[in-house]
Amino acid sequence: MSQLEELKKEDCYFPLPIILYDNECGLCVRFMKAFKRIPDTDDYSFIPIQNEEIFSTFPQLNKEECFETLHLIDHHGKILKAGEATSFLVKKFPLVEKFQWLIEKDMGKKTVSIFYEVVNKYRRAIKKTCPKCGKPRVSP
Question: pTM of the entire structure?
Answer without folding.
Answer: 0.67
